[in-house]
Amino acid sequence: MSMKKFIALAMGMALAVSSVTAEKSSTIGVRGDLSFSVGSELGSDMKDALVVDLDPTTEVGGGVTLLIKNTFSNNIVLQGEFGFAHNVVGFEGDGVEITFSCNTFNIAALFGYDILLAQNTVALTPFVGIQSGIILGDCDSEVKFGGTTQSDSGSVDTIALSSLLFGVEALVSVGPGHIVLDGRYNLGLFPVMDDSSEIATFRALQLSAGYSWKLN
Length: 216
What we know:
Order of helices and strands: HEEHEEEEEEEEEEEE
Distance between the termini: 38 Å
Structural class: mainly beta
Signal peptide: 1-22
Number of helices: 2
CATH class: Mainly Beta
CATH architecture: Beta Barrel
Protein name: Outer membrane protein beta-barrel domain-containing protein
Helix content: 10-25%
Pfam families: OMP_b-brl_2
Shape: elongated
Domain Outer membrane protein beta-barrel: 51-192
Number of domains: 1
Mean pLDDT: 87
Low-confidence stretches: 13-22
Keywords: Signal
């Protein structure tokens, strides 16, 4: 084989390998989310305004999320998420119970790495990411004390809830797609503000399950 033909063949093989290694796989899915308000904090202004010390309680929220996952040939994962969530935090102490809740439209970007198991039928993906939850409508509050309950609803100054995400996602091949299992911690960064006062910081442990389909 001449040197010219060898170089041409080598270049052709390199281009073929390059096209394969650049290939990525994509999935789209939907999942249901269940969240527990673990680690939430009462705002400093609320603490100063109350005459009793309140400890956080575990309140339950939830939502639904659309996810688009892109996995590249080096197992690097970029995932976008769009969803609706009902967020709840609660506090209690000395006979007083307080809960705050609001609905958000969430947009998240995750960065992860696929660990393939069971002959590539299972993918575990540790990830980190950021999320912004745009508050929809009014926020609700409820105060229980001495056998009475007072409820209120109104707008707040805060437009969105910003948070960091840490967790693990599992995709299990079943049928034409994958069962999606997800566990993460939503670390709220800033408190909800109203009239320049800190109300509460929303944080939660979230467990999710759903199904995704291959796009390519």
